Amino acid sequence: MAVTLKRICVFTGSREGNKAVYRDAAAGLGTILSEKNIGIVYGGGHVGLMGVLADAALAGGGEVIGVMPKGIMDLEVAHNGVTELRVVETMHERKAVMAELSDGFIVLPGGLGTFEEMMEVLSWLYLQFIKKPAGLLNVEGYFDPLLSFFRHAAGEGFMPESYEELFTVNGDPLRLISEMENYIPPDGPLVQRPTPT
After folding, report:
1. DSSP 17
2. CA pair distance 69, 50, nearest whole angstrom
3. Is there a contact between 99 and 7 (Cβ–Cβ < 8 Å)?
4. Which of 26, 88, 97, 144 is the most exposed place for a label (fewest CB within 10 A)?
């Protein structure tokens, strides 16, 4: 059964990175989501790839909901042109609201904040706290080192080999969205049960 994606939460950087291709990917995703009438939920910033994504979606007439804690309103320069800007108290509340409003998650290139948000969602999927599709938009192989580390962690026995069922990876945004629409959650938890002694 296909997943209906009315809104997608997008995690991405408050910087633009060193290559134009990252900016192009953020703008392209924003445009595609607006064309597909899929709303965006994101961190609420006007700067970096966050701002590029939001501006592109808004230019196409798309819905864009920003969620930002009071404490970083000045740091991340809140986007005043979004459809709705929700101001929350904490980072934990921010992520909870973003997840609640969204039917799935896409991760674009970013830094520590993006990684932290992505890893929490992947942990929720792993523990089956949520069963929403997640995808990594692997722009020019940006996430390849991370995917290599995941394989290393699985090889060392800290993750099951089936972790790959949790999310999808693609460098093409249209294919990524299509794969997310066809997402089937793992049948049962991936968490390893303790061995009785």
Report:
1. -
2. 15
3. no
4. 144
Which domains does the chain carry?
7-181 (3.40.50.450)
CA distance 179 to 134: 10
Rounded to 5°, the CA angle 178-179-182 comes to 90
pTM score, whole prediction: 0.92
Cα torsion 163, 187, 41, 168 to 10°: value is 40
Q: Is 89 helix (H, G, I), strand (E, B) or coil?
A: coil
Q: Per-residue pLDDT for the chain (197 aa), expressed as one digit of tens each?
A: 578 999 999 999 999 999 999 999 999 999 999 999 999 999 999 999 999 999 999 999 999 999 999 888 767 688 989 999 999 999 999 999 999 999 999 999 999 999 999 999 999 999 889 999 999 999 999 999 999 999 999 999 998 888 888 999 999 999 999 999 999 887 766 666 555 55
Please give the structure tokens belonging to residue 47. 């700067």
